[in-house]
Write the structure tokens for this entry.
Amino acid sequence: MTTVVVTGATGNVGRHVVSELGRRGIPHRALTRNLERATAVLGPGADLGQGDFTDRDSLRAAFAGAEQAFLSCANDPRQVENAANAIEAAATAGVRQSVLLSTVGAEVGRRRRSPISTAASSSACARRGSLSWFSGPAS
Ligand SMILES: NC(=O)c1ccc[n+]([C@@H]2O[C@H](COP(=O)([O-])OP(=O)(O)OC[C@H]3O[C@@H](n4cnc5c(N)ncnc54)[C@H](OP(=O)(O)O)[C@@H]3O)[C@@H](O)[C@H]2O)c1
């Protein structure tokens, strides 16, 4: 069975994805910057990978061996770059299927620095990536 990497795994959305993957017995790796905090959130049995969206090497290590990914990238002024780094790491690792979580109100053309607008840009970035199968918003 393939391994699914989940980014934003300790967040409001990601923690439920991790929980559901675990419930279904699907191998997965939960990305976090802080292993101790992630263990507190996800439980002692969680399979964790340490990485930061701003550190490409850490992302490549965290995605190694994965074939699928759920990409949740936190609202941040650098959200587009962060998502691009995650997409690049996933593609480099050989991930062929991914879901990129968008944001309510995501829309190309909104104010450049709005963290909301970045989700749409991230989606466009993902479609330009080398992933063969991608699920995300149409905008
Ligand atoms: N909440 C909702 O109902 C909802 C609905 C639809 C879409 N969204 C969108 O989904 C995205 C995530 O929302 P959320 O509410 O789940 O997030 P959240 O609760 O704020 O959690 C943020 C997550 O991102 C991780 N993170 C933050 N900065 C990081 C970095 N530099 N490198 C690696 N990981 C980093 C955090 O991991 P660590 O702290 O463990 O490192 C944490 O797991 C946002 O873009 C949001 O707009 C949210």
